[in-house]
From TrEMBL:
<protein>
    <recommendedName>
        <fullName>Porphobilinogen deaminase, chloroplastic</fullName>
        <ecNumber>2.5.1.61</ecNumber>
    </recommendedName>
</protein>
<dbReference type="GO" id="GO:0015995">
    <property type="term" value="P:chlorophyll biosynthetic process"/>
</dbReference>
<keyword id="KW-0150">Chloroplast</keyword>
<dbReference type="Pfam" id="PF03900">
    <property type="entry name" value="Porphobil_deamC"/>
</dbReference>
<dbReference type="Pfam" id="PF01379">
    <property type="entry name" value="Porphobil_deam"/>
</dbReference>
<keyword id="KW-0934">Plastid</keyword>
<dbReference type="InterPro" id="IPR036803">
    <property type="entry name" value="Porphobilinogen_deaminase_C_sf"/>
</dbReference>
<keyword id="KW-0149">Chlorophyll biosynthesis</keyword>
<feature type="domain" description="Porphobilinogen deaminase N-terminal">
    <location>
        <begin position="75"/>
        <end position="287"/>
    </location>
</feature>
<dbReference type="GO" id="GO:0009507">
    <property type="term" value="C:chloroplast"/>
</dbReference>
<keyword id="KW-0808">Transferase</keyword>
<dbReference type="InterPro" id="IPR000860">
    <property type="entry name" value="HemC"/>
</dbReference>
<keyword id="KW-0627">Porphyrin biosynthesis</keyword>
<comment type="similarity">
    <text>Belongs to the HMBS family.</text>
</comment>
<dbReference type="GO" id="GO:0004418">
    <property type="term" value="F:hydroxymethylbilane synthase activity"/>
</dbReference>
<comment type="function">
    <text>Tetrapolymerization of the monopyrrole PBG into the hydroxymethylbilane pre-uroporphyrinogen in several discrete steps.</text>
</comment>
<feature type="domain" description="Porphobilinogen deaminase C-terminal">
    <location>
        <begin position="300"/>
        <end position="372"/>
    </location>
</feature>
Length: 382
């Protein structure tokens, strides 16, 4: 097995080190290969030394393993190469293996790492790149072309319209949907001094921050994976940032959290915290595997939220938030929000109804239509 390893500087309060139990830090990854990345070539037939970039703060190893396949994989999983994307792929693999003993054999599940457009263009804000499927297009193409069997996505990255010849029948149990506040000097957004700069590439976060805290500034071109953004924060490029708590939990990096924002303070992105798994239309074998993993409560909530997003025709240029969940009575409670990019106007609505697919989709659509009507033409500036 060959390893390509990178290092990240450790911070004092923002601790970039992951816990040993983190699946991303495990070098026993099973069968993994890489598409679209330039990796060092090793000549060792078994285990070669990890490349380690040293810094004055020490180093943290983030390993990607590349193995020779010793057998034909039963399932080839396609994913991005970020530590969070890999953690989600490993979670998928572990759930498949726990339910299907034949998948526990060496090489039965192979992870294919695919570089996407969103991974390649890091110098511009997402809103400036434009288009949909920035983090999914190349993975979907690999699925359609038969290079992989299933595709593991962060659901908030998935366009509202799936590519032809694919279906997305499976959502894993949803993680915490809230956003986390990360800062070296303050415990909350409210404690930041006027003029402080918050780094976020999300227009949803930007608009809600500026709406509630107009004295703050937002750095939009704050891109990169979780580790990169934490490193930028520790290096003083911004005073604070917001990250999805779900990703920090999956990476075992919650020690970096200064506080967790309530849903009233920061409504999450549509489908935040949810993992979706796609396969080809007509691939009954993969569809049956995915059916065994599907968490129906999450699937219905995501369907409600995505119906809301579809109605608004949301994109990276549109500040939209939405969250559906089962309340104490077993009903669906949905909250939706649209905002002007500068945060000067924020419109919100809510719905409540049966926790049933058709009803929830209708709730999302109805909420979207209401906000479209209230916003009026030109509200989003595009």
């Amino acid at each position: 097995m060959d390893f390509a390893c990178s290092s990240l500087p450790q911070a004092h309060k923002v601790n970039l080190a992951r816990q040993p139990s983190s699946p991303v830090n495990s070098c026993s990854l099973g069968s993994v290969s890489v598409i679209g990345f330039s990796l060092p070539q090793f000549t060792s037939p078994s285990l070669s030394k990890c490349l380690r970039k040293q810094s004055s703060y020490g180093s943290v190893r983030a390993c990607v393993a590349v193995e020779q396949k010793t057998r034909t994989a039963i399932i080839r999983i396609g994913t991005r190469g970020s530590p969070l994307a890999l953690a989600q792929a490993y979670e998928t693999r572990e759930k498949l293996q726990s339910k299907h003993p034949e998948l526990t054999e060496d090489g039965a599940i192979h992870i294919e790492i695919i570089k996407t457009t969103g991974d390649k263009i890091l110098s511009q804000p997402l809103a400036d790149i434009g288009g949909k499927g920035l983090f999914t297009k190349e993975i979907d193409e690999a699925l359609i072309n038969g290079h992989i069997d299933i595709a593991v996505h962060s659901m908030k990255d998935v366009p509202t319209y799936l590519p032809e010849k694919t279906i997305l029948p499976c959502n894993l149990p949803r993680e915490d949907v809230r956003d986390a506040f990360i800062c070296l000097t303050a415990a909350s957004l409210a404690e930041l001094p006027a003029g402080s700069v918050v780094g976020t590439a999300s227009l949803r976060r930007k608009s809600q921050i500026l709406h509630k805290y107009p004295s703050l500034a937002v750095e939009e071109n704050f891109r990169g994976n979780v580790q990169t953004r934490l490193s930028k924060l520790q290096g003083g490029k911004v005073h604070a940032t917001l990250l999805a708590l779900a990703g920090l939990k999956r990476l075992s990096m919650t020690e970096n959290v200064a506080s967790i924002l309530s849903l009233d303070e920061m409504l999450p992105a549509v489908a935040q915290g949810a993992i979706g798994i796609a396969c080809r239309t007509g691939d009954d074998k993969m569809a049956n595997y995915l059916a065994s993993l599907n968490h129906e409560e999450t699937r219905l909530a995501v369907a409600c939220e995505r119906a809301f997003l579809t109605t608004l025709d949301g994109s990276c240029r549109t500040p939209i938030a939405g969250y559906a969940a089962k309340d104490e009575d077993g009903n669906c409670f949905f909250r939706g929000l649209v905002a002007s990019p500068d945060g000067t106007r924020v419109l919100e609505t809510s719905r409540k109804g049966p926790y049933v697919f058709e009803d929830m989709v209708k709730m999302g659509q109805d909420a979207g239509q209401e906000l479209l009507s209230r916003a009026g033409p030109g509200f989003f500036g595009n």
